[in-house]
Structure prediction request, 418 residues.
Amino acid sequence: MSKFLNLYLPAAGGTALILGSAYGLSTRGYQDDTVAALQTQLEQKEVVVADASAQAAALDAQVAEMMAANEELLARAAAGGGLTDPAPVTEVAYGLGRPALDEEIAAWDVDVLPDGRGLPVGSGDVWTGEELFVDNCAACHGDFAEGVGNWPVLAGGFDTLADEDPVKTVGSYWPYLSTVWDYTHRSMPFGNAGTLSDDDTYAIVAYILYSNNLVDDDFTLSNENFLDVEMYNADGFVVDDRDVLEYAQWRAEPCMENCKDSVEITMRASVVDVTPEDDMAEEASAAHSMSDDTAPAEESAEAENVQASADPALIEAGQGVFRQCSSCHQIGENARNGAGPQLNGILGRTIGGVDGFRYSTVMADAGAAGEVWEAENLTAFLMDPRGVMNGTKMAFRGLRSEEDAAALLAYLQSMGAE
Prediction:
């Protein structure tokens, strides 16, 4: 081994010793820092656990108080406490919310009670209500409150409540006018609730009353005469006494098996036009066609020619438009006078010329003057009844478009004479 190598090895060994010592010292310092950090974290977690334990103990105390209050309530109910008894007072404080401001309570306190409490000052007449009803309500309820499709019917149905399939409308069923006003004001029109003013609501409710023949066409509803309106079914409801007569049954153990000897079907969805069966739907469609589409057997040859030459699509569209008229007028075989005269053979007929129907003065005068329903004047009348014949009793605002008028005229022509 050379002299250089002999000198180098001791030097290298000394350097390694120095580096090893430095590493050891640094490692020890790192371990001390790590231990201190872990000890700090442990102390923090102990504090968190202590806080959580305190919170859990407080919650347990609240739960115990609530359970005690609930047991007290159940004990009172078992002892015969009625459903109308005041709710038990508990001193449990939940620490939530704040007292409501008077302005906030007033904003929510908008209900109208049967005795008139809550009614705002305002008024609205039948004819204004008709215009508002057509614009805001007729899409679902029809121009005359007769209902569209499965949307609710609002008028008619009198003396049907004892039937197997009663017609529950504002006129036949609702006992309080306040319910009509309150529901209309807060929930209508559909999809745009709460947009009706107080006066608008009075007017629409007045029109609904008129549609049910509960008021005359010159009636104005207001907060002052609101309680003077007598609803048809005002005496048809009784005080809810189920807490006395039925509460004991509610507390009994329910029957879970073999509760009845036999089960019978008492109603089908097809009866209320929800999910009609195919064969029943076809029968209904055929019956509808027989009553509405079939021209009377004694039609004149001229009417048959008109029917044959008219556009079938236009006649079909007119039949759809006629639904707006069907609540008052009948057409087709065995058509009779109703709220309005039957319309068989109206084209070419003397105005106000149907026997047995009581026309308005303006209609009777037109007939006395020899005026006849022709396509031109009938179209004008259908578009604007009160504008063409001021004083007519027909409660209809008018068709929305000339296309509807042309379609309806084609349908009326297709039905021919009586």
Remarks:
- The chain has a mean pLDDT of 79.
- The first strand starts at residue 123 and ends at 125.
